[in-house]
User: Fold this.
Amino acid sequence: MQLSERTKYLITGALAGLANGFFGAGGGLFLVPLFIGWLKLDERKAFATSVAVIFPLCAAAAWIYWRQGNLDFAQSLPYLIGGAAGGFLSGRIFGRLNMTWLRRVFGLFILYGGVRALLLL
Assistant:
């Protein structure tokens, strides 16, 4: 059975939303490989589109966490400021990055996170 493009988009988004909701982030770990391999997006567009998709997912999850009393905005403010600065900087230099280098760094972060999750339980 061949899935329609719309169904693929919905499945990809659902996986990213689940990862983001359960782990507090990580939707991009699903999105980038699925965008490239399953949806055949260009690598540069896959990374950039992942950022655009993750923003509303994070906002939705943060709102739910806040409503449940699990989010302290005052404590998260320094991270938000630093993250916004890092996001601005990386957005400015993204177009000049070598995609092979970016793919390898991304893979190393995935590997590092997986090893830490397995060994530090």
